[in-house]
Design brief:
By secondary structure, the protein is an alpha+beta fold. 40% of the residues lie in helices and 29% in strands.
């Protein structure tokens, strides 16, 4: 009779005399180890992706630091349109996005940027787009990276009031 709690030893010369429970436990251990390896690999992959996203966000947010003091140039709105969007919240429903694409130059090099404003009503988005289509607007740009620019809300309001 086999002892279930005692593994086969090297003294057991006949493989048929070995306890089959230890084979099952060995296979189960192998499967569990493989599953843990896969799980660990997935976890490491997710952690790596999260770290990369955090680093990217930090670098991008660093690019935008100090925007209040960036130099201002005159840009021309080259394209203006309204797009409809839907929020993930069914109660919030749809919204309308007024989008402006503009171009500007810094020290002889040309750059482009865009501005998006969200509106609840389509007619408000249409009014926004029509108001700025083809006009010159002030934009500020990052002096270290002139390809990064933005339109300040205060500047938009001053143009709108004029």
């Amino acid at each position: 009779m086999y002892d279930v709690l005692h593994p086969a030893t090297s003294e057991d010369s006949d493989p048929q005399l070995r306890n089959p429970v230890w084979y099952i436990l060995g296979i189960a251990s192998f499967v569990i180890a493989q599953a843990w390896s896969f799980t660990a690999a997935v976890i490491l992959l997710l952690v790596g992706a999260a770290v990369k996203a955090v680093i990217k966000h930090y670098k991008e947010s660093k690019d935008w630091q100090g925007w209040e003091s960036w130099p201002v140039v005159t840009a021309k709105v080259e394209y203006a349109t309204v797009r409809q969007g839907h929020s993930g919240n069914s109660r919030a429903g749809s919204f309308h996005m007024g989008e402006l694409a503009y171009s500007y130059s810094v020290e002889g090099a040309f750059y482009s940027g865009f501005c998006r404003c969200r509106f609840a009503r389509e007619k408000d988005a249409d009014s926004f787009v029509e108001e700025f289509r083809g006009v010159s607007i002030p934009v500020c740009y990052n002096p270290a990276k002139p390809e990064l620019s933005l339109m300040r809300a205060a500047d938009l309001r001053s143009i709108s009031a004029a």
